[in-house]
DNA sequence: TAACTATATCAATACTTATTGATATAGTAA
DNA sequence: TTACTATATCAATAAGTATTGATATAGTTA
């Protein structure tokens, strides 16, 4: 009756990690950024201009995404190019799917 | 280069819906409740006692989940029994997977 | 009816976090 | 060097929301 997800240490840890991931991507601008980066790497100015955000706000959200490992950055001249970390996203997607899929059976 | 998800009306609407869903489930107690209800329908007192939450707080989170359609409730004597709406969850899972899957392709 | 149990609601507070404005840093070019 | 561009950081504020305490409501049982 009591599902494992709320009992043993590993399950609790997974739930915590999943919630952290969800908090990161449950912000509209951040999800848009991830969405935008799916089309290929972009510099910060491309991102904020395209999304209509303030430059510093964009930097802030990129930092949140980067700190969590969802994106990476590299300097290229004056610009900083951000790209998406597919593997990391897949990892958390998988964790999340433990909570969203496999109902019933 | 510019992904559809940030341009046309339908994509913007999908993103908004997805973010709303994410905000609902990105709260630890709510995700735990969903997790718990996967094991079968439960009354409120079972839920708050099992999760160690205050009764009113549990009611609050259940209301949030219910208002969004993720769970349903029915009265059974003194108790109110909550159950999970698998179809709704699947619907939003699908929406979400548009953002988390199919990278690179 | 009255007393009791289970749940919901309301107001206030606490907490987190998004946003803004100002400024700093780093790279580039003259 | 100075001037310029792109990005990051910091402090302050604003906005949203989780939590708590008190109370109300609904169903049950005596």
UniProtKB/TrEMBL annotation, chains A, B:
Domain HTH arsR-type: 10-104
Molecular functions (GO terms): DNA binding; DNA-binding transcription factor activity
Keywords per UniProt: DNA-binding, Transcription, Transcription regulation
InterPro entries documented for this protein: ArsR-like_HTH (IPR011991), HTH_ArsR_DNA-bd_dom (IPR001845), Metal_resp_trans_reg (IPR051011), WH-like_DNA-bd_sf (IPR036388), WH_DNA-bd_sf (IPR036390)
Protein name: ArsR family transcriptional regulator
Organism: Candidatus Uhrbacteria bacterium CG10_big_fil_rev_8_21_14_0_10_48_11
């Amino acid at each position: 009756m009591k599902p494992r997800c709320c009992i043993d240490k590993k399950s609790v840890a997974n739930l915590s990690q999943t919630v952290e991931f969800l908090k990161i991507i449950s912000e509209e601008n951040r999800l848009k950024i991830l969405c935008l980066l799916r089309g290929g790497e972009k510099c910060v100015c491309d991102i904020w201009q395209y999304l209509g955000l303030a430059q510093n706000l964009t930097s802030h959200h990129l930092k949140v995404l980067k700190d969590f490992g969802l994106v990476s950055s590299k300097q290229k001249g004056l610009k900083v190019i951000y790209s998406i970390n597919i593997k990391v996203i897949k990892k958390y997607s998988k964790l999340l799917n433990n909570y969203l899929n496999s109902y019933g059976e």
